[in-house]
Amino acid sequence: MRNLIALSACSLALMGTAGAADAPAPAKPARPSIVPPLPSRPALSQPAPAAAPLSEAAQDAADEQAEAELAAKIAKRLAILRADQDARAAAAARHRKAAPARRAAAPAHAHGTHWSYEGEHGPAHWGKINPAWAKCGIGKRQSPIDIRDGMKVNLEKVAFEYSPSPFTVVDNGHSVQVGVGPGNYLTVQGRRYELLQFHFHRPAEERVNGKGFEMVVHLVHRDVAGKLAVVALLLERGQEQQTIATVWGNLPLEKNITVAPSVVLDAGQMLPPQREYYTYMGSLTTPPCSEDVLWIVMKQPVQASPEQLAVFSRLYPLNARPVQAASGRVIKESN
Ligand SMILES: [Zn+2]
């Protein structure tokens, strides 16, 4: 027991110094400070309730031996650690020498392809991960936004021509995405866009007058000129939604595996009965954050059951980009 405690104290001390060695700051760690003080006896002998009682002399002898063993172990591990630290310091020095040359030769940006919703690959860093994603950082017409102060006007109705279609489902590592077969269209402002895919975010990326929603469905459309139009359906807790039930029923078991179910799916069943909407010009909400995207956010939320919302939250508890500055953009809304 004593030896075990001594060992774990030892490895804890070593872990501490190894961590310090990984940190970039001090080139010359103050060596004396890394020699851990020998743990005091009470700390060492604290547990061991099961040990048979020893005479005081025997106890002292045992303690002394344990301390001697501990000291020897620490000394040995410190020697290894110092050699390791010296090697690291030498490597760091070589790296520092080589760095300026490398910087001069390399482009100003990395060309990463990995992004996520948290941490060093999170939304605040997307624009720096890849030069093709610069808009994520410096764009002035980015999405999502908090939709407020819309101009109430007589917006034309969006003409949806959706019909039951073959579909695919993939969990692409950022969301569950449903590829929709050809022949589903929407027409607005004299342009006809074809539905390509829809996917989900949790929570909803858009806000409306500051209000958030449980989830959102983004239906991504493209016209013949390549212009994009995205319809956002805000999801709220309520009745089961049939189209989502079909999608969840065909979720692939593994990421990045596309399944093509033998049934058809009608995206139109997801649309709310009332077709008033907000509209503004924005961007894709994932890298590359391309702008010039027409956004159509339906005013009436669509219901999904608590169970359906729970299924997605198990896959993606958080996959929403924070709201971006509206920067004085025109927002229109149906009367
Ligand atoms: Zn989206």
UniProtKB/TrEMBL annotation:
Residues 20-63, 91-119 are annotated as: Disordered. Residues 41-60, 101-110 have a biased composition (Low complexity). Pfam families: Carb_anhydrase. GO terms for molecular function: carbonate dehydratase activity; zinc ion binding. Its EC number is 4.2.1.1. Residues 113-335 form the Alpha-carbonic anhydrase domain. This is carbonic anhydrase. It comes from Massilia glaciei.
